[in-house]
Amino acid sequence: MTIRDVARAAGVSVATASxxxxxxxxxxxxxxxxxxxxxxxxxxxxxxxxxSLITSRTHTxxxxxxxxxxxxxxxxxxxxDQRVQQAGYHCLISSARHGGPSxxxxxxxxxxxxxxxxxxxxxxxxxxxxxxLPAGFPVVLLNSAPTQLPHPSLTIANFEGxxxxxxxxxxxxxxxxALIRGAEGNFDAAERRRGYRAALAEAGLPxxxxxxIPGDFSEAAGVAGARALLELPAPPTAIFAAxxxxxxxxxxxxxxAGRRVPEDIAIGGFDDIPMARYVExxxxxxxxxxxALGERAATRxxxxxxxxxxxxxxxxxxxxTLVVRRSCGAPQR
Amino acid sequence: MTIRDVARAAGVSVATASxxxxxxxxxxxxxxxxxxxxxxxxxxxxxxxxxSLITSRTHTxxxxxxxxxxxxxxxxxxxxDQRVQQAGYHCLISSARHGGPSxxxxxxxxxxxxxxxxxxxxxxxxxxxxxxLPAGFPVVLLNSAPTQLPHPSLTIANFEGxxxxxxxxxxxxxxxxALIRGAEGNFDAAERRRGYRAALAEAGLPxxxxxxIPGDFSEAAGVAGARALLELPAPPTAIFAAxxxxxxxxxxxxxxAGRRVPEDIAIGGFDDIPMARYVExxxxxxxxxxxALGERAATRxxxxxxxxxxxxxxxxxxxxTLVVRRSCGAPQR
DNA sequence: TTGTAGGCGTTATCAA
DNA sequence: TTGATAACGCCTACAA
Lengths: 333, 333
Fold this sequence. Notes:
The structure is a homodimer.
Chain A: H1 3-10, H2 14-21, H3 29-41, H4 48-55, E1 60-65, H5 71-85, E2 90-95, H6 103-109, E3 116-119, H7 126-132, E4 139-142, E5 153-156, H8 158-171, E6 177-180, H9 187-202, E7 212-213, H10 219-231, E8 238-241, H11 244-256, E9 266-268, E10 285-287, H12 290-305, E11 315-318, E12 321-323
Parallel strand pairs in A: 1-2, 1-3, 3-4, 4-5, 5-11, 6-7, 6-8, 8-9
Antiparallel strand pairs in A: 10-12
Helix pairs in contact in A: 1-2, 1-3, 2-3, 5-12, 8-9, 10-11
The structure holds a DNA duplex.
């Protein structure tokens, strides 16, 4: 079932059939109708590969993520797909997780399959880019550290969100506010710590290195972190965990240790995962609209593809909002 | 950067270059090395579209889901991608959600881009299949009702899982066990109800139509369902909700109504979403390994693609396991 | 063991 | 307004 069949059925040449099927060119209204009818009747749909060969557009964008696990990624994908679909594009998903194919291989494998790529990976460097991607290949970076790379990049307001959280805790009267940090070397984690420190400084609270506990975004790290904090000669009265997973871990650890939340210790998290509403007490967190992040990334990439935007390498930050629930002890509503 | 460039750089013909790059054909070890080196140096990677034109394989599989929202879908995708990636394939994701393009359009748009498709949609009929897909096009159905369609299909053990749950509740001494049903017309929902009824019958409990409350898998339906049940002249002592979302809704409704769970009323859910562990009391549920479902679907599809399997249209059911937590009041451990 | 040449399904160019 | 025909990049007979 190729365009030849359609052409034959409509009694025209393939060239005319092609013109009639696409918007392009001048075709008599009558012939166009005949061709369209034939295509419909034959259930014709063009072969994407062949078309991309000549147009050198695939109408597909690649989405390369470090993993496909968890709500963050599913939401990103949802946002991207939604945006991309309404533009008539497709989504080729791939994860370059540890143990799987390298980022380079994954990127390379996408060649000829996608017109551009939304990329989330700390490993992506200029050197790699140059080695792997054709010059000028459209790329949008997601949640990456600021780079010199000539690509637009999107992040969420890690710094501002954390600062708002810690400011809120300080506003409730807490003087000893601990931080359970995110993964070492992670850009989000670093930014969240920066926000934490900034808020402390603003509130006139002295930096207290012993209140900063390393973590890795896992629930277990939250448990361990909270336990460590309780061991301190002067334990904190509030804990800010760099993500909700660790915050929930901390919640459990405190409960096990017989501490009441928020009466004895307040807790705040980051991400506002759905579960935050359900834990007991419900978790104060920093809300992030992840599907909007994906949608925005797709929009930027499409703009690049359509050549509508200048090589705009600006960095864009999506806002976050503090969601106050019971775990921080603030008066509700 | 095409194979011509590589050939030229290696001082051979494109045919030889092609042979050297693929496993195929007899090539002198020396020339193979030269060609490979040239390809490496030039960062050559073949154009997928062109290749698919001649081989008529894309090494890509389509994944068509009703939506991309929530953990179920992200886990399915993860399972599929994992399996497919290790076979050197790619994943083209698409959702045929309401308001978006129709299933037919989505399916049609995949032509020439994928070698086969993992499909989850209640709307997929033989008629549609015939109209949209080339005869013999590889399809694997996910969580669909049994059909006459000549495609392998995969489901989870809805019936068995529900039966195990209700059997468990009956075993704890409950005589009045209610069901909050899943969405009308949904195959999973129907199967879960069938399991519920079967377990009641096995336990010698009389069917009690007033204990079957309609629902739609939403948390709100769980709230409404639980309230309705409490209004009954003889309320149930246990509630089985057809999914965890509704079970959690019911949990909240009971708490609001001043009922203790599990002391006054026991609750069980289905799916074992991550949140089930975190609600208070933790929720007894039926565990489903969703990424395994995706992985299995991918495996079946790949078998079809590689022609390794006969046109095996068998229906495969993935087991579920009952996870007992506190909400049902069973002794722990 | 290697090279030549044809063709996969489309669109684009150029004549008619 | 239409039709031949030449690409696009690749693979694979077939010939050398």
